[in-house]
Amino acid sequence: MPDPTSNTITVTDNRTGKTVQLPIVDGTVRAMDFRQLRENNDDFGLMVYDPAFTNTAACRSQITFIDGDAGILEYRGYPIEQLAEKSTFLETAYLIIYGHLPDQAELDQWVRDITTHTFVHESIRKFMEGFRYDAHPMGMLISTVAALSTFYPEAHHVDDARSREIQTHRLIAKMPTLAAFAYRWVRGLPIVYPDNDLSYPGNFLSMLWKMSEAKYTPNPTLERAIDVLFILHADHEQNCSANAMRAVGSSRPDPYSATAAATAALYGPLHGGANEQVLWMLAEIGSASRIPEFVKKFKAGEGRLMGFGHRVYKNFDPRATIIKRIADEVLDMSEPHPLLDVAKELERIALEDDYFISRKLYPNVDFYSGIIYQALGFPVEMFPVLFAIPRTAGWIAQWREMITDPEQKIARPRQIYTGERKLDYVPMSAR
Ligand code: CMC
After folding, report:
1. Cα(137)–Cα(158) distance, rounded to whole angstroms?
2. pLDDT value of residue 314
3. Ligand 1, closest atom to CA 301?
4. Which residues pair with 66 in a beta bridge?
5. Going by CA atoms, what residue is nearest to atom 24 of ligand 1?
6. What residues does 29 pair with on adjacent strands?
7. Do 187 and 309 lie in a common domain?
8. Residues spanned by the domain of 156
9. Integer Cα distance of 402 and 159 in angstroms
10. Residue 182's CATH number
11. Does any ligand 1 atom lie closer than 6 A to the CB of residue 307?
12. pLDDT bracket for residue 412 (50, 70, 90)
């Protein structure tokens, strides 16, 4: 008769008949406990096989909670809907990194700390001028954020709390500057230096779009739209780029190098590059009449419906719901977007199709963000960059949590070796 109070699992190894009781803590079994199960004394012990970490918890974390079935996303316990309505990106970044909402004095100090670090060394600007005229801004961002480590050599003191603090300020402050410099370079426009009188999103817009005016005044609706988009993208627990930040950070390089790795992970079309792919896909479809033909292809496995599906959300993506509202506000202010109708019709058709319903594929955050970004005037290549800026707050929070977690060590998965063994070297003449 099972004992409902016992938080253990009994495992019998049918190869040997050995039975072990393994503790269950937080709905989880320790993978190392399985190593007790061996076929004989020379055996290494049982491992668990989990390519792509689909069922493996790699850390304990207090940063972001997701219930994928219920469509819930919370940062430090606060629902994303409330933060998107009431908070600012910088306040949310503080919350994500320090674990509590700041009081007024803490917030003022935090905003000051970020604002006074927005400039980058002039050599960074010159360094960026070395890129080709048509360089992808994400490639420029990955390289220049890595290059920051050469300007702050003390950043490798990752066990020094004060050093971690300063690098935190620098990373959050400088990412928009690097992103804007990359944008201006791609457009052939002169660099605009940070304006520290403006808000975090306002300054970013100024660095992007200021031309000959003495002072750039951001449109408040756009400034707020960018701020909310930043809040929505700030963290998403153990996604591919957060995992890259933690895995690379676990060998203890400086946080700029780890952030470059995380940014590279975000660049991929299955992660932060998806919003860029959504636009290419919508442009390729071109008109609502061609949607059935494309949906048929996606169902046959010829390409994917970009902006649909999520590893964790299997009901709806709460960020997509908020983004759809922002899309309406932004699109009301801008020129009619030719691909919006295609996107809406594609969403409608996919949501009624058995293929997508049975696989629980719904629009994710990227489905509408690309359309908003394009309506705001961003070239498609900038989309993943706009994701990387706010996600830096999440990466830093994940990195700081990992560095100070006594259970963490250098990340080093196991493998199942399936190759040849013990071959004798074959001379060239005999191959
Ligand atoms: N279009 C068509 N079929 C899909 C899609 C899609 N977008 N996504 C998943 N499927 C199918 C997939 O072919 C598989 O079908 P079957 O069971 O017949 O083999 C099934 O659904 C399960 O797919 P999976 O690849 O096992 O799912 P996953 O959890 O590994 O992948 C995903 C999640 C987000 C990578 C995937 O849904 C995808 O590639 N989506 C398109 C890219 C995208 O929009 N990415 C942005 C994610 S949200 C932003 C972020 O957090 O980065």
Report:
1. 28
2. 86
3. 13
4. 73
5. 311
6. 24
7. yes
8. 64-404
9. 11
10. 1.10.580.10
11. yes
12. very high
